[in-house]
Amino acid sequence: MKIKSQRDFWSGLMFLVVGAVFAWGALEYSFGKSAQPGPGYFPFGLGILLALLGAVVLFKALTLESEGGDPVGAIAWRPLIVIVLAIAVFGVALPRLGLAVTLPLIITLSALAGDEFRWRDVLVSSVVLTVGSWAMFIWGLKLIIPLWPIYFNG
Fold this sequence. Notes:
Distance between the termini: 64 Å
Number of strands: 0
Largest sheet: none
Mean pLDDT: 90
Shape: flat
């Protein structure tokens, strides 16, 4: 069997594997019922959907011809490292700095991964995403997430 699109093949394979791993990992948690879903209900469903999406993309890569075989380009190391670093910073900073400081920090850091960095875009994104996250997670869902740095909560 010939791979007709390298990009679709590798991305489909990645989605398929990640989805299957998430669905398998969700089996360790209680599913609950449809009316009262448990902690494994959503990750399992999301993992299955991701695996199905990967299977469709993988099938497309093996059946539909693309011009030039759609080769995979070079790995974009800078964006990859910056985004992974931003995720790590989020995990470390959120409990200490709170949502109001951490989100603008990681939005700014993540914006550095792209080729076009504009302060206006970063500021607008920071305000909208911080207020939206506060409204959704802290106010709406009543999750216990610190809003301000621990130094201000004392």
